[in-house]
Amino acid sequence: MSTAPRLTALDALHRSLGATMTDFAGWDMPLRYASERDEHNAVRTRAGLFDLSHMGEITLTGPEAVKALDYALVGNISTVGVGRARYTHICQEDGGIVDDLIVYRLGETEYMVVANASNAQVVLDALTERAAGFDTEVRDDRDAYALLAVQGPESPGILASLTDADLDGLKYYAGLPGTVAGVPALIARTGYTGEDGFELFVAPEHAVALWQALTKAGEGVGLVPAGLSCRDTLRLEAGMPLYGHELTTALTPFDAGLGRVVKFEKEGDFVGRAALEAAAEKAATKAPRKLVGLIAEGRRVPRAGFPVTFGGEVVGEVTSGAPSPTLGKPIAMAYVDAEHAAPGASGVGVDIRGTHEPYEVVALPFYKRQK
Amino acid sequence: MSTPENLRYTKEHEWLSDVVDGVATVGITEFAANALGDVVYAQLPAVGDTVTEGETCGELESTKSVSDLYSPVSGEIVEANQDVVDDPALVNTAPFEGGWLFKVRISEEPKDVLSAEEYTKLTAGN
Predict the structure, then answer these.
(1) Do you know which Pfam families this protein is assigned to (chain B) (predicted)?
(2) B84: which chain A residues are within 8 Å (Cβ-Cβ)?
């Protein structure tokens, strides 16, 4: 492992904006530019601009690319039309989640898999190995793309002012090639903030020009640069899982309440099928721990790993926690024993550094935007 | 980044004001506030508590983390800043003014404090 952090094409720009940088999966990434709370609120009410170039792009091409993906992943990729995207998981033989992914179908026989930065290498290795028996080429495109995201209610207007692409025709979970501010880009609509928004995959040499064009286009409507810190509170409010927190190799998609991403009806074998069939059956007969939301009655913030308690007994574990700018209270996601996981369950709390703090159990998400 | 000349500082990034009638005011530095990010919760020592130099006496919670608060001086708490308890963001917006944390009647001179110049050196390059 090299110890020097990897820098995105926008690194100098972040520093010129006074960003607080942080190491994330071996990358130097902007944590926040000024106040993370202000950035969070800007995305909820106006728009935020993110650098997500640390995400790992892997391209599969060739006549059997789709067959390879159907074998390697738990989803039914053969049902994804050109220009569409699908959220899916890649699992181990034992059903444990290796990563959660978005797969874009860019052409008849071309697919782009986007993995989390921390798992990009593992996913690349697994896809390469699993595709070996198929007529397809697996290409490491991590350095081929910079990734910018503009998220928030003002984002369609901002982007529309810079592109002729048919944004109205671009539905949630779709992607199309186009030109933004004169820059060739793959435009996708697969946000991770709970807001409407767009991801723009571009060549790294175009990243700065595109960032500046978006900044200028968003000036009048309150677009601000936004860092990873507010991204975490945004996705938490939206009840979206983060790999390493809600999803791990110790859990199957059924444990995570995401059994719907596993498509047993697809043709042929796929890695993890047998173990996942058993996991599905087990989940149907005996409910495992359930992923729930917790809202604080007090002001102390639960953090990942803190025990969820009931009557002095440990009944679960916090996977993510943060102060919620939108709710104005600390919130958390946690895996909780089924008997204490119903919304409104009483007596549930979190052990915060030795004190039992009462929490309200709620269904996820905490926040849903008004369409 | 400001480091007022008239204050004394600690390696844990607290500041200590001049002593007036035996009482000094304590807060955290702008450097520390920036490193924490938005402060969302402040647990301060209570009036009447005895604090000891270099030992924890409370905590500050931010979006990303929780940090222990160390007392830069030994003595008895005579006031805790209720404004900060009600609106912890004051620590970020005015760490040296309205965001002060507590006032302490000092029982002995602090041993391990830095001048503004020494503290600036300590935090330079960060």
Answers:
(1) GCV_H
(2) none
